[in-house]
Amino acid sequence: MHNLAIYGFGGVGRAVLAQALPHFTLALVADRSGYVVGPLSNERWLAVAAAKAQGTTLASLPEGTSGDWRAALPAGCLVADTTAEANAAQLVELVAQGQRLALANKKPLCDDLNLFQALVGERRTRYEATVGAGLPIVVTTNLLRDSGDQVQRIEGCLSGTLGFLLSSIEQGKPYSSAVREAKALGWTEPDPRDDLGGVDVARKALILARTLGYQWNLSDIAIEPLYPAEFADLSIAEFMAQLEQLDAGYAQRQAEAVAQGQTLRYVASITPDGARIGLQAVANDSPLGSLKGPDNLVAWTTKRYQERPLVVRGPGAGVEVTASAVLFDLLALC
Amino acid sequence: MHNLAIYGFGGVGRAVLAQALPHFTLALVADRSGYVVGPLSNERWLAVAAAKAQGTTLASLPEGTSGDWRAALPAGCLVADTTAEANAAQLVELVAQGQRLALANKKPLCDDLNLFQALVGERRTRYEATVGAGLPIVVTTNLLRDSGDQVQRIEGCLSGTLGFLLSSIEQGKPYSSAVREAKALGWTEPDPRDDLGGVDVARKALILARTLGYQWNLSDIAIEPLYPAEFADLSIAEFMAQLEQLDAGYAQRQAEAVAQGQTLRYVASITPDGARIGLQAVANDSPLGSLKGPDNLVAWTTKRYQERPLVVRGPGAGVEVTASAVLFDLLALC
C-alpha cells in the first residue's frame, strides 16, 4: 500500500484519515503544532483523531513531535493538504522531491501563476475537493479539456452559504435575517463578510479557469461583494448591527428580477474573455434558476454541449464529501 | 506516446481517432472486414476515416488487411472498443494478455458476471462512455464507491430517445406521433421497439449496479417496455401501423400523473435490493421531473448525499461526446 501523509487535521483531515485507512499506509499526520508518525495501528490512528477532535494538538500527544513534518516524509509519498494555508511554495518543493499531492486547500492553487503551473504541470497534484467538495467538477472540466472540447462558458453557483441567502431572499426573507440565520447555523465564517465578499467563490472560479489553461490571477477576476463598499471597514459587531440598511436594496433587486421572469443568484461566470463573480438575474427555468437552497451547481457550455449544457449539481460542502474527493484524488494518483 | 488500437470504426470510432491523434500513436484501426496497421501519418489516418465514412471497408483499402486484428496488436496496447458486439470473452483474453481497454460498447459488460469481473477486476478496463456518453456518470459512481459512501438509490433517465418521447407526451402529443417523429429524426433504431423495449436502458443500469459491486445479471432487472407484450411479435411495418392503438393508454397515464402534481418519466431505479426499468410518475419539482426533452440525468442518493442527491445532467448521446469519454478513459489508463 502507498504511503500517505495528511497535513491539516481538522474535520476534513480527520475524515480523510478515516476514509483512507483501508487503502493506504498512513505515514504521518500533521497540524500546525507538529506531527505524529506511523506505524500505528488503525485503532491508534483513530484515537489520535479523536484526541485532536477534542482540542489536543498533535505535538502534545504521547506519539507527537514538534517541528517540521516535511522532514519526516518518506520518499514517494502521497500528501493530502486539508489546511487553509497559503503554502504554494512549500508544496511546489514537495512536488519537486517526487511527492504527489491531493489538495482540499484552495489557496496554493490561487497563488502566483508560475507556482500553479509548477504544482499541476507534472500531473502530480490533484484538487477535486477544492471546487464543490465531493461533486465531480474538476474531473469534468479535465474531461472536457483533455478531449479537445472547447469550453465557451462555465457558470456556477459555488457557495452553499450564498445559495441559501439568495433562496431566502427569493422567498421574501429580508437580507438581514438571512445573513443572521446563516451565521447562527455556523454556515458563515465568524465574519460573514468573508463569505459575502465573494473571494472564496472567485478562488474556485480561478481554479477552474486555470484548469482550462487560462493564465489568470485572482486580481483578474471581477468580484461584486454581497455588501456595499462602505460596509467593508466596520467591525463585525457594527456590520451585523447595520444589516437592515441593506434589506430594501436586495429586496428591490429581487423584485426587478421577478418582474422579468427571473430570479437572483450569486454566479461565477467564466468565459475565455474573463471571469466575473456577482449577483445575476437568471431565468427561472434555467439550470441556475431552478437551483434552490444551498446546493452547488456548475453548467458547462462547450462546442459539444452547446444547445444544452452539461450540469453537475448537489451539496457542495461538508466534511465527509470533501474528504471523499480527496480520497478520489489519492486513489487516482496511485 | 502509448499505442492505441480502435476496434469499431463507425461514427464513434472515427471520432475517437480524431480526438486521440494528438495523444497517442495509432497502432491500428479495425472493423468487421479487417484492419489497417500503422505507422501512418495523421493525414493518412484521417483519410482512412474519410474513406470508411463513405462506406469503404478497411480490408478493401490499399493499406488494409483482412483477418483477425488481434494478432496484429502490439503488446501493452490501449484498445478502444466502439462496436456493439457481444465480445466479452475476447476482451477478457486481451486483458489477460496485458492490454488495457476503454469501452463504448455496453454488451461485454452485461454478459456473464464472471466475465465482467475478469474484465474490470484489474482496473485495466474503463467504460465511461457506456452510460450517458460524455456525462461523468461512471466516474461519479466510482468516486462514491471508492470513498466508502453507501449508495442507497440511483435514479436515472438514461435514454434521450425515451426522454424525448415522454416530454412529447407531457406536451400533449400522442404516443404514435412522438414515436414516428423520433424514428424520422433517426433517434431510434430501425425497429423502434429496440429503444422502446428498455433493454438498452437496463444494460446501463446493470453496468452501474455492477460498478457498485452488485452481483446481478441482466435477467435480474425488471423491465417494463414502452409497448404492450402483444406488440412484440409484429413486423416493424405492422407495429408502426398500429401505434395509434396505444395513444389513449399513455395519454391517460400522463393525465393521472398530472392530477397528482407529477409527470411521467422512463426511469432506471437501482437500489441494493434490485433494479427496475419502466414508466414512473415523478414529482414535477424533483430532479427527474424537472428534466425536459432528450437530456439524460442521474441522481445518486447516498449516505452522504441523503437529504439532497448528487445530480449529473446533460445530453447523453452523440458521437463527439461519446468519443470524449473514451478518450478520458484512455488517458486515465496511461
How many individual domains of chain A? 2
Strand content of chain A: 15-25%
- Amino- and carboxy-terminal Cα gap of chain A: 9 Å
- What structural class do you assign from the helix and strand content of chain A? alpha/beta
Ranges of chain A where pLDDT stays below 50 over 5 or more residues in a row are none
Largest interface: A-B, 40 and 40 residues
Major β-sheet profile of chain A: 7 strands, mixed
Separate helix tally of chain A? 14
Short description:
Chain A has 334 residues and is of the alpha/beta class. Chain A is built from 14 helices and 13 strands.
Task: Supply database-style keywords.
homodimer; 334 residues; alpha/beta; Rossmann fold; Dihydrodipicolinate Reductase, domain 2; seven-stranded mixed β-sheet; six-stranded mixed β-sheet; 14 helices; 38% helix; amino-acid biosynthesis (chains A, B); homoserine dehydrogenase activity (chains A, B); homoserine dehydrogenase (chains A, B)
Task: Tell me about this structure.
Chain A is 38% helix and 21% strand. Chain A contains 14 helices and 13 strands. The first copy, chain A, has a 7-stranded mixed sheet with strand order 4-3-2-1-5-6-7, with helices on both faces. Chain A has a 6-stranded mixed sheet with strand order 9-11-10-8-12-13. In chain A, a hairpin with a 2-residue loop joins strand 2 and strand 3. In chain A, helix 1 crosses helix 14, helix 3 runs parallel beside helix 5 and helix 7 packs antiparallel against helix 8. The model of chain A has no long low-confidence stretch (mean pLDDT 96). At the A-B interface, helix 6, strand 13 and helix 14 of A face helix 5, strand 13 and helix 13 of B.
